[in-house]
Design goal:
About 15% of the residues have low confidence. By secondary structure, the chain is α/β, with parallel strands linked by helices. It has one domain: 3-Layer(aba) Sandwich (Rossmann fold). Helix content is about 30%, strand content about 20%. The N and C termini lie far apart (about 65 Å).
Length: about 260
């Protein structure tokens, strides 16, 4: 996984200093060290960082919540990677968490700490298309150009999505190609061959100044029982007092005369 991120980062044309968001026990950092990169890793879990210290990893370790910003000097990093971490910013795990504010803080601080022309590659697993769109949207608002690259798009097990971002580019940046089913490289736009499991297809390539047009919502299909249950669960995560779910929840009432 780290080698693939390194490949997408294209370190051959950038400097050696890398930021890892969600570094965990430092296993991925060891691969970066072997390839001659200096790195700084942050993680929200103290126990995972303790494991990294016990393993004597060579990177600098920070106990930090990336949803509150990265807290580094502007332009100090030559690149950034993350493995299966940024999707958690889309969730409200605590009543104090507001996903939009956390995404804004993360991508804003990431943009500031990267050198101009540097690249960030964030591997993620999105629950749905909406989460992917949230990640791309806040990255573009922070000033990045880029988009989503998908490896093995038709595999339910091997499929992986990468948010590939370039810092300080005002025009649309060209994206690397994703890996195909037989090891060949395939464009991230060639993934719609009718595979029903491929729900969250690539979002595409975007420039930092792209228009933010909202799609019209079909209220008839979007406000049923499932929508109501999701809204109630969101309110519970925010600490609100919400009535318990019953067999009558979301049931359409008959019109009384």
């Amino acid at each position: 996984m780290v080698l693939r991120l390194d490949e997408l980062l294209a370190f051959t044309i950038m400097g050696p200093v890398c930021r890892m968001a969600g570094c965990g026990s430092g296993l991925s950092g060891e691969t970066l060290t072997e390839h001659g990169h200096r790195w700084i890793g942050c993680d929200i879990s103290r126990s995972m960082l303790d494991v990294a210290l016990e393993r004597e990893t060579e990177g600098d370790l920070l106990l930090a919540d990336m949803g509150e910003g990265l807290g580094l000097r502007p332009g100090v990093m030559d690149g950034a990677i993350s493995i299966s971490a940024v999707q958690w910013l889309c969730n409200a795990d605590k009543s104090s968490h507001e996903p939009r504010l956390r995404l804004k803080a993360f991508f804003g601080s990431l943009y500031r700490c990267l050198a101009r022309g540097a690249r960030a590659v964030l591997q993620f697993y999105a629950d749905n298309v909406k989460q992917t769109e949230m990640l791309v949207s806040f990255a573009m608002k922070a000033g990045f150009a880029g988009g989503v690259v998908i490896d093995w798009p038709h595999s339910s097990k091997a499929k992986k999505s990468y948010l590939v971002l370039t810092c300080g580019t005002s025009s649309v940046a060209s994206l690397p190609k994703g890996k195909g089913e037989n090891g060949e490289m395939c464009s991230s736009d060639d993934d719609d061959d009718g595979d029903e499991s491929n729900d969250d297809q690539t979002v595409g390539t975007y420039g930092r100044n792209r228009s933010n047009k909202r799609q019209k919502v079909n209220k008839k299909n979007g406000r049923g029982k499932d929508w109501l249950l999701r809204k109630k669960e969101q309110m519970r995560k925010r600490g609100r007092d919400v009535p318990a779910d019953t067999k009558y929840t979301g049931r359409k009432r008959k019109t009384r005369f």
